[in-house]
Design goal:
Shape: globular
Number of domains: 1
CATH architecture: Up-down Bundle
Helix content: 55-70%
Distance between the termini: 42 Å
CATH class: Mainly Alpha
Number of strands: 0
Largest sheet: none
Order of helices and strands: HHHHHHH
Number of helices: 7
CATH topology: Four Helix Bundle (Hemerythrin (Met), subunit A)
Strand content: under 5%
Radius of gyration: 18 Å
């Protein structure tokens, strides 16, 4: 697997962009979104819009900050071998199906925190409390396998931090809203995959 070369200028731009995204995610999720849930019991249109823009920024990060070798994100030519590229493509397709399939199944308004009643425990939520985020992880991991670089590793870190902060704030809200029912859900279904929160 041959990694593309980096330059000092690229790194400075990249680090500044990553730091800006991480700061924006922290402020939006830990301040604006949390306040919206606490005051209104749901996301306001403004908070939902900011949340969407932060996630969109994290997803678009490679388009904006990758070096020249990675400037056309979806080109067929990759910097990895055929096996890694094939694995990456399969993981991307799986992530896309999980993330967007769950959103359509769940309903777009509800997926963005703007509506819905009751705790959803069916469909993909039998295996993960956050299947959309799991799908997002797969998209990022698959893309990183197809176009491997230190930039891709950093993108995974930015995604992990931003999405985890978002989830923690949602969990605070759901615990307030559904109480013991949500605590039982946490004990039975993992936050992401594999291991439920036994101590919830």
């Amino acid at each position: 697997m041959n990694l593309p070369e980096t330059t000092e200028t690229n790194w400075l731009i990249y680090v500044a962009g990553a730091a800006s995204l991480i700061l924006a995610a922290y402020l939006v999720f830990r301040r604006v979104v949390r306040r919206s849930y606490e005051r209104h019991g749901r996301l306001t249109g403004f908070a939902a819009c900011l949340q969407f823009l932060v996630i969109l920024g994290v997803i678009a990060f490679p388009f904006l900050y990758n070096p020249r070798q990675w400037q056309w994100f979806w080109i067929l030519e990759t910097h990895s071998g055929r096996g890694w590229a094939t694995a990456g493509c399969v993981i991307i397709l799986l992530g896309f199906a999980i993330a967007f399939g769950t959103m359509l199944w769940f309903g777009l308004r509800r997926a963005f925190g703007l509506g819905g009643q009751g705790l959803v425990r069916g469909g993909p939520y039998r295996w993960s409390r956050n299947p959309q985020v799991v799908g997002g992880y797969l998209l990022v991991i698959g893309s990183s396998l197809q176009w491997p670089s230190l930039y891709a590793c950093g993108w995974l870190v930015v995604w992990a931090m931003a999405s985890h902060w978002m989830i923690l704030i949602e969990e605070e809200h759901l615990r307030r809203q559904f109480g013991e029912e949500y605590v039982r859900f946490c004990r039975e279904v993992p936050r992401y995959l594999f291991r439920p929160d036994r101590a919830a």
